[in-house]
Amino acid sequence: xxxxxxxxxxxxxxxxxxxxxxxxxxxxxxxxxxxxxxxxxxxxxxxxxxxxxxxxxxxxxxxxxxxxxxxxxxxxxxxxxxxxxxxxxxxxxxxxxxxxxxxxxxxxxxxxxxxxxxxxxxxxxxxxxxxxxxxxxxxxxxxxxxxxxxxxxxxxxxxxxxxxxxxxxxxxxxxxxxxxxxxxxxxxxxxxxxxxxxxxxxxxxxxxxxxxxxxxxxxxxxxxxxxxxxxxxxxxxxxxxxxxxxxxxxxxxxxxxxxxxxxxxxxxxxxxxxxxxxxxxxxxxxxxxxxxxxxxxxxxxxxxxxxxxxxxxxxxxxxxxxxxxxxxxxxxxxxxxxxxxxxxxxxxxxxxxxxxxxxxx
Length: 361
Fold this sequence. Notes:
Elements: H1 2-21, E1 27-31, E2 34-42, E3 47-51, E4 65-69, E5 73-76, E6 79-86, E7 96-101, E8 108-109, E9 122-124, E10 131-132, E11 145-147, E12 154-156, E13 168-171, E14 177-179, E15 189-192, E16 199-202, E17 205-208, E18 213-216, E19 223-226, E20 233-234, E21 245-250, E22 270-273, E23 282-284, E24 287-289, E25 300-303, H2 308-314, E26 320-323, H3 335-338, E27 341-344, E28 355-357
Parallel strand pairs: 3-6, 4-7, 6-8, 7-9, 8-10, 9-11, 12-14, 13-15, 18-20, 19-21, 21-22, 22-25, 25-28
Antiparallel strand pairs: 1-2, 2-3, 5-6, 16-17, 17-18, 23-24, 23-26, 26-27
């Protein structure tokens, strides 16, 4: 009997203690009409992170709206705490939030921190580069502007893949590596700071600065594309998914180009190649050759008048298995991936009759 009483007392105490222990926040601060909740992460170092209210199991609508400027420091009791992180799900579900401004003190942003902030349009990142968890901006479908800090060296744009409203990105001067640009379906323009020594942009298109390589054409790029003079390499996949482009001009300097690059560009009407000597773009039956797979069977290839015969003679336009030229592959492409065959029907290949001479205006 006594044992049963003790058991009931222990269970009652656990029922009281456990919910409190799972509460995320230690204190709250109201700024600009929005109440923010914070969790103390280090009592001695006086650091805290932005978090959600109450218990993770609580199902409540996050009332934050408008602009939230996360403070670099907050006072709680007799101590001043530095806010150095945004915790998991900290502002998840804040459907009225349209702008988030992060202080320079932020070094970490947790999993799904802004999940479901469907009206979030503008993001100001910290000066230095924080680490990001999974799904930071999951279901943030309205993001249209992101400001990156000047000290950033790497950007993974995949975190913004849920929005089609991000049309322009501006790359800071110290960025050395980027990935995920092709996950941005609405991107039209890439701008690079003039002092960046790794990348450069021209007409909204991304190029390398150390070598004349076209790296990325934004997926929503529209109309005519004039590849910069002096460009020698068109990186594999750099424009293949740009279905809104109607005309492309390649300078005579281009030496490396994949035969697949235009195979999904259904609106492409005219491709102009200024080089008088045809370049090898594919491997067919063990030999390097000139071939182009095209999505629009009405596409016209314009070449210099003296080179028309040479292009028609060099062109391989039959049905079969084609390979990318292995020596043309980007450094990041594995050899086994570069050696995959691609089967095309004859009607998918550019035909000699589609080659015309360039008309000088």
